[in-house]
Amino acid sequence: MNTTLVKAISASPAPGPPFGPGAAKQTHTVAKLIDTTTCIGCKACEVACQEWNDQPFLIGAFEGTYQTLTDLTPSFWNLIKFNEAEQEGHLLWLMAKYQCMHCVDPGCLKACPAPGAIVQYTNGIVDFNAENCIGCGYCMTGCPFDVPKLHPRTKKVQKCTLCSDRVSVGLEPACIKACPTNCLSFGTREDLLAKAEARVEALKDEGRSESGIYNPPGVGGTHVVYVLAHADHPENYGLPRDPAIPWTVALWKGPLKWLGNLVLLGGILGTFFHYVRYGPRRYKDETG
Amino acid sequence: MRLDEPKVDRFNVVERVTHWLVALSFLYTTLTGLALWSPRLYWLAAVFGGGPTVRGWHPWGGVAFAAFFAFMFRAWNRQMRLEQDDRRWLRLAHRYAVHNEEGLPEAGRFNAGQKSLFWIQAAGAVVLISTGVVLWWPETMPRALRLTAILLHPVAAVVAIGGLIVHIYMGTAAVPEAFRGMIQGWVRPGWAASHHPKWYREVTRR
């Protein structure tokens, strides 16, 4: 059983901070660091993910790249994207692991109408609960990274869990365990951000001045953080440039909800009190 | 009720059946839709068979509504055209609301308020159905379409439900006897002459 503390639940009031003795204890949030500069595209993380989560190996069509599939699928949550880009006359062959980013401010959770279908734990992991998922797919629209995928048969949305089952018992995610170059690491978010900064410094010392951290502020930061050698062009890695919760989703779940409730309640109360004040329309029968 | 009570036929049986099919399908999609509109109304999902069932059947409720509404639209849209008098009526609608009908043009078979509701619901239906199709199969729809639909669907729903609340009030408590017109299909001559004088004269002339 997953005993991790909960920070936010979809379509439900926030559980609030823990109280009682020991409540002041600082809980650490976790993160995954992906150093794309040392990724060799071996896809061991893809295999480990499929193995640990008991998912089938899928056969895709050959698209002229080394990429396993063109996109994530409901049963394939971890994809190395192989991208080619040209920069100042040089060809760049960029590899970047792609999966759920575990946003600090998750758009999926904001968009979800089913109580308990999406849960954000205090350690930062954003998890989907299939038993509460109704398969509406709103999370797919709320997610600025286009990560959640609807399973056509079970009608449940699936994505990377950051191995919440492993993390809750003190293990690191399966992908981390499989990485042969240590380009993937797992730990507290604080530690890994420091590690990422140190790595960026080192890269800059080597003359790779465009290096940087991908930890997009538009979603409050993420619990999956990248070191990119070309951080000025994250889109070359297949990462959105300025991801944020879409404004239509924010408007719909924010002001529109209040306005809508006001209209509906106002309609009911308004008609009721109209009756109380003016009563029904009466008529005099003038037809004889 | 007296057998020989004087009656004026208000809505024929095809109109009544169509209206109530529209009403029932709209009510079902409204209640299942409200379950997904607010977590505070999610209990409605339990009433209609649980979250996944609601998600599965709500679009089909919409399909039924679309079909019935299209039929009703074809039958009524010509009678619902807003004319010169109707525009004047709408400008004085506040007087109608407080039962002071001085200067209010006489209504035909449908008054300008009813006609307006018809067009508002027609526009709402078009938006709800087109955005509903997008939301039905999110996995096959382009992102920009989904982002638009996710906003416009509830906006149109709020407008349509707002219209429905007023419509139900007008058709029951606010205008006694109107309900019988839509259920049994007839009204008293005095009612017709008072509420829809132009229409009453047409009917009695024949």
What share of the residues of chain A does DSSP label as strand, in percent? 15-25%
Total beta-strand segments of chain A: 11
Most residues in contact, chain pair and counts: A-B, 46 and 43 residues
CATH secondary-structure class of chain B: Mainly Alpha
Q: What is the string of helix and strand elements of chain B?
A: EHHHHHHHHEHH
Q: Uncertain runs of chain A with pLDDT below 50, 5 residues or more?
A: none
> Would you identify the CATH H-level superfamily of chain B?
Transmembrane di-heme cytochromes, Chain C
Give the averaged pLDDT of chain A, no decimals: 93
Total of DSSP H or I helical runs spanning 4+ residues of chain A: 8
Strand order of the largest sheet of chain A: 9-2-11-10
Question: C-alpha Rg of chain A, in Å?
Answer: 24 Å
Using the alpha-carbon principal axes, give the shape of chain B: elongated
At CATH level 3, the topology of chain A is Alpha-Beta Plaits
* Distance between the first and last residues' Cα of chain B: 26 Å
Structural class of chain B: mainly alpha
Q: Specify the overall morphology of chain A.
A: elongated
- By DSSP (H or I, 4+ residues per run), the number of helices of chain B equals 10
Number of domains of chain B: 1
Largest sheet of chain B: 2 strands, antiparallel
Largest sheet of chain A: 4 strands, mixed
CATH architecture of chain B: Up-down Bundle
Keywords:
heterodimer, A: 288 residues, Alpha-Beta Plaits, 8 helices, B: 206 residues, mainly alpha, Fumarate Reductase Cytochrome B subunit, 2% strand
Secondary structure elements and pairings:
The complex is a heterodimer of chains A (288) and B (206).
Chain A: E1 6-9, E2 30-35, H1 44-52, E3 79-87, E4 90-98, H2 107-111, E5 118-121, E6 126-128, H3 138-142, E7 149-150, E8 157-158, H4 164-167, H5 174-178, E9 184-188, H6 189-205, E10 212-214, E11 224-228, H7 247-253, H8 255-278
Parallel strand pairs in A: 2-11
Antiparallel strand pairs in A: 1-5, 2-9, 3-4, 5-6, 7-8, 10-11
Chain B: E1 8-9, H1 13-37, H2 43-47, H3 51-76, H4 84-91, H5 93-97, H6 112-136, H7 143-174, H8 178-183, E2 186-187, H9 189-195, H10 197-205
Antiparallel strand pairs in B: 1-2
Helix pairs in contact in B: 1-3, 3-6, 6-7, 9-10
